């Protein structure tokens, strides 16, 4: 996801960051929360002290693990992906920025090692994911407050659990919240091979919706098309094909989409708008092209199209923690039924983070980089 209009600092994430200090002995104002043992436990974490190119500003450091307080949970991270929002956050181009220095990563799955005396909802062995962004998941271990975590079933695949809290949630909410779609209706999206795009394809198929999936042309386009269709995509077309006049004949055999999902912006978003049915909605949730959405005046007037935006972090602010937990459980049910799988992933050991960061920023890379601890 791209730049939002107003940057706001994440106080909760900053507090979580202060619970882990550099092993060199830096001190902060809440010294009573740090481990008081003579030899505090060490953890490894990917830390950035200022914004910039992730390959240059992110460093692997040893940190001290805080003591477990009464409402705290000690977790061992199992796996954590590198998402576009993680990259944007490190670059300083995101709507949510933790105070620096910060541990990278907004998503991942961990296993509970120990809990404080006041913790009632979690126990050792449970799997958990972050309740909100900014927690800092690119580390081997951590101590978090119980309220910062959400339990997930441990009977789902590890990669699915590690990538559950951002992209599938975004996909599900966009499909459910903007148009009252019925089985047989169609949805069009760009960036269809992204993590959100792959989740949209699968969740839409589970809901009986038909998808038109737009991707950039590439040498292995047929391979990509086959893979997306194996997930449930009905049509896979390139940006160039979308612009051709012949597209007007495309909808003779299927209804025009009432919902368009835009993660690119620029010309790609303009073409999505052109394909929408009268009264349809285009939801923008990213801006990979770093170009503005340009909407034709005639389309807005004569087709009464609607332009909306979606940001999962804002959705969480507008809804209760229980509603987010319900969303997670709904997605877990789809995973158990085989209707939702993790995106294509490459597992990379934490110490090889440089290659993972570089791969995550290359064009035409369909495999999500997942750091393993």
UniProtKB/TrEMBL annotation:
Recorded hits in SMART domains, A to Z, give: PKS_ER
Q: What is its EC number?
A: 1.3.1.104
Start and end residues of each Enoyl reductase (ER) domain? 60-371
Its UniProt entry gives the catalysed reaction(s) as: (2E)-hexadecenoyl-[ACP] + NADPH + H(+) = hexadecanoyl-[ACP] + NADP(+); a 2,3-saturated acyl-[ACP] + NADP(+) = a (2E)-enoyl-[ACP] + NADPH + H(+); (2E)-tetradecenoyl-[ACP] + NADPH + H(+) = tetradecanoyl-[ACP] + NADP(+); (2E)-butenoyl-[ACP] + NADPH + H(+) = butanoyl-[ACP] + NADP(+)
Q: Where in the cell is it found?
A: Mitochondrion
Please name the GO terms that the record assigns under molecular function: enoyl-[acyl-carrier-protein] reductase (NADPH) activity
Q: What is its main location?
A: mitochondrion
Report the sequence similarity comment from the record. Belongs to the zinc-containing alcohol dehydrogenase family. Quinone oxidoreductase subfamily.
What name goes with this protein? Answer: Enoyl-[acyl-carrier-protein] reductase, mitochondrial
């Amino acid at each position: 996801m791209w730049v939002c209009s107003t940057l706001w600092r994440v106080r909760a994430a900053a507090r979580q960051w202060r619970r882990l200090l550099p092993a060199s002995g830096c001190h902060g104002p809440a010294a009573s929360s740090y481990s008081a043992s003579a030899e505090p436990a060490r953890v490894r974490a990917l830390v950035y002290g200022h914004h910039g190119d992730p390959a240059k500003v992110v460093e692997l450091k040893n940190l001290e693990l805080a003591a477990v307080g009464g409402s705290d949970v000690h977790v061992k991270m199992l796996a954590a992906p590198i998402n576009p929002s993680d990259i944007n956050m490190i670059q300083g181009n995101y709507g949510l920025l933790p105070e620096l220095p910060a541990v990278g990563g907004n998503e991942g799955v961990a296993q509970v090692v120990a809990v404080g005396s006041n913790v009632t909802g979690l126990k050792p062995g449970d799997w958990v994911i972050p309740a909100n962004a900014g927690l800092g998941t690119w580390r081997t271990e951590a101590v978090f407050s119980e309220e910062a975590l959400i339990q997930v079933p441990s009977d789902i695949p590890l990669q699915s659990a590690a990538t559950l809290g951002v992209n599938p949630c975004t996909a599900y909410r966009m499909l459910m919240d903007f148009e009252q779609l019925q089985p047989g209706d169609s949805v069009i999206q760009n960036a269809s091979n992204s993590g959100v795009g792959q989740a949209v394809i699968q969740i839409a198929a589970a809901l009986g919706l038909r998808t038109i999936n737009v991707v950039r042309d590439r040498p292995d386009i047929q391979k990509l098309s086959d893979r997306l269709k194996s997930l449930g995509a009905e049509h896979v077309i390139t940006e160039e094909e979308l612009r051709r006049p012949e597209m007007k004949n495309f909808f003779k055999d299927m209804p025009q989409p009432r919902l368009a999902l835009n993660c690119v912006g620029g010309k790609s978003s303009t073409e999505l708008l052109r394909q929408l049915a009268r009264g349809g909605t285009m939801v923008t949730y990213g801006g990979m092209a770093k170009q503005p959405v340009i909407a034709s005046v005639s389309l807005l007037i004569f087709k009464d199209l609607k332009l909306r935006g979606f940001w999962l972090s804002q959705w969480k602010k507008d809804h209760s923690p229980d509603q987010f937990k319900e969303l997670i459980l709904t997605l877990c049910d789809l995973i158990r039924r085989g209707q939702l799988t993790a995106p294509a992933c490459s597992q990379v050991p934490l110490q090889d983070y440089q290659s993972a960061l570089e791969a995550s920023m290359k064009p035409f890379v369909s495999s999500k980089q997942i750091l393993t601890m």
